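#lab-general

N.A. 3:47 PM
ok so I finally got the sequence cleaned up, no stray characters, all 87 residues accounted for. can someone with queue access submit it? mine expired

B.Y. 3:52 PM
send it over

N.A. 3:53 PM
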Amino acid sequence: MKKFKIIKETIEKEVVEKTICNKCGDTINHTGTEFDRNEQEEEFASFSITFGYGNKRDGNTYSFDLCDICFQKMVDGLKIAPTIDEG
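B.Y. 4:20 PM
back already:
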């Protein structure tokens, strides 16, 4: 027979405190529950781009965040519009 008791455990985990747009510097502080923080983060897009073999940036990974406004400006500045998957 097993007897159980309830114990209180404390865990530490890393959470996003704030997101900063790498282009304009706009900042959003993440507060509240995990759901609230995820909702707040939707105002930004995170990018991680790794360059392939033979490129002058071979193996380098660039990670950055853009606010919605700066992302739209970047897309508008492209000579050829990107393909959009609205899935």
